[in-house]
Amino acid sequence: MKFKYDVLVIGAGIAGLHTVLNLEKDCDVLVLAKDYAWECNTFYAQGGVAVAVDEEDISYHIKDTLHAGAGLCDEGAVDILCHEGPQAIKEFIKHGFEFDKDRAGNLLYTKEAAHSRNRILHAGGDATGRYIHQFLMDKLKFPILYNTQVTDLLTEDSICYGVRVFHNNEIFNIYAKKIVIASGGVGSVYEYHTNARTISSDMQGICVAHNIPLRDMEMMQFHPTVFVEDDAVRKQLLSESLRGEGAKIVDEDGVRFLFDYDDRGELSPRNIVSQAIFDYKLKTNKKVFLDLNNFEEGFFMKRFPSIYFNMNNIGYNLPFDLIPISPAFHYAMGGIKSDLFGRVESVDSLYVVGEAANTRVHGANRLASNSLLEGFVFSKRVAQDIKLSLKEKKKNVDFDEIEPSLIKPSDKNLKNELRDLMWNSAGIIRHKKKLQVALGRVEEMLESPIGKLLRLRLLSSREIIKSALNRKESLGAHYIIKGDNI
Ligand code: SIN
């Protein structure tokens, strides 16, 4: 195999594959996938792609995004997302992608919480991510190296030259003129999450080790309607579009208690619904359910085939059975700090895009279905910047190919302890004392004889905890309670 490329893309979800789709065919590109290509969050995305339905809607999309973001958004980033979104989607459709349409051939838009109008495009009903991913894979014109764990960035004098990887039981280096991190968020550091099994904050940890700044790491989003009562690592997401189309959240007595927390009830922003469910369960000790009785069976099977099938496999007869729900970790707003072309400001030749990135486009709380749109829009900007700068001269530097042990025997137990610690201390509701205890324990684990991969998770988790401790007041997804009552 070759060890030198023009562009190296770490991650095969929408952010990575759409970057690649926008690079020239004669560019020499390698995509790295940690597992099978479909083990990424894009593949499991259900709801859809939020996009302004017409010129007039752009300003409302901006307003909704800023409002959900609770004052922490970068307005320039939001402006780009909402203005450039429609064009990116138009181009994707021109490439041949088909979103769901009505019989007359008009695009179908659904609604999700905190959107002021129906603007969510979907495909295959609730299989939007899977359809997009399959399409991008079909269009891919460059090689992918599967089962490839990135173990380090090769940097010298604030320039990135490539990555060190573990593949086929070997450690080796791959060099490139431009390196794009598109590896997703941090799901596996939490006990309950909806993420692909590959999403474990490795690249964020590598950045911490290289003093590359992460930002807003306290901003972790918990999806309110997740089925967590089975043993699967990735918990079953029950798309927000179910509530957008009329599903209710009820307690075991049928009470729609969300209105006690927010007038918008089921259509309140995700953070409010998650925090309300968590709080209500704690206070009342009652179970909470998603009630789909508003749906007619035939329509439900056609509109939400994946949820129908997956839940049927676990023994639920939808839309008739109530589904027990819990919030679970879903999406990291915080990430590797970048500018609006995905450039990691402190390291030359290094880009970051998608969930791994923090442009502040989502602020303190991401508006539903804005993440696939972010993948479309910002990856185009990364590709554009790469095309402009690829001809610049870059010297050759060789790095050694030595890596400490990636895994040690005690890692498994510590990894499980970390998940539990993060869920209970840096989860939906935080408390200073618990965060301090968690920080102490993470520091202890970092001092113990552990493998490098666990070290990377711990470094990322430490950033989440430290950022949560630094933000003293609740904001968006960061909900901190005061007093000793925990
Ligand atoms: C969902 O379908 O509820 C997920 C959409 C999102 O996370 O944006």
What is the compact description of this entry?
The protein is an alpha/beta fold and 486 residues long. The protein has 14 helices and 21 strands.
Explain the overall architecture.
- It is a single chain.
- By secondary structure, the protein is of the alpha/beta class.
- Among the domains are: 222-329, Succinate dehydrogenase/fumarate reductase flavoprotein, catalytic domain (Flavocytochrome C3, Chain A, domain 1, Alpha-Beta Complex); 411-481, Methane Monooxygenase Hydroxylase, Chain G, domain 1 (Up-down Bundle), CATH 1.20.58.
- The protein has 14 helices and 21 strands.
- The protein has helices spanning 14-21, 41-44, 55-68, 75-94, 128-139, 202-209, 240-244, 270-284, 297-303, 305-314, 370-389, 411-425, 432-447, 452-470, and strands spanning 4-10, 29-32, 49-50, 109-110, 120-121, 144-145, 149-156, 159-167, 170-181, 214-215, 220-227, 236-237, 248-251, 288-291, 323-324, 326-332, 335-337, 350-352, 357-358, 430-431, 480-481.
- Strand 8 and strand 9 form a beta hairpin.
- Helix 1 (14-21) crosses helix 11 (370-389).
- The longest helix has 20 residues, at 75-94.
- The mean pLDDT is 97.
- Succinic acid binds next to helix 7 and strand 16.
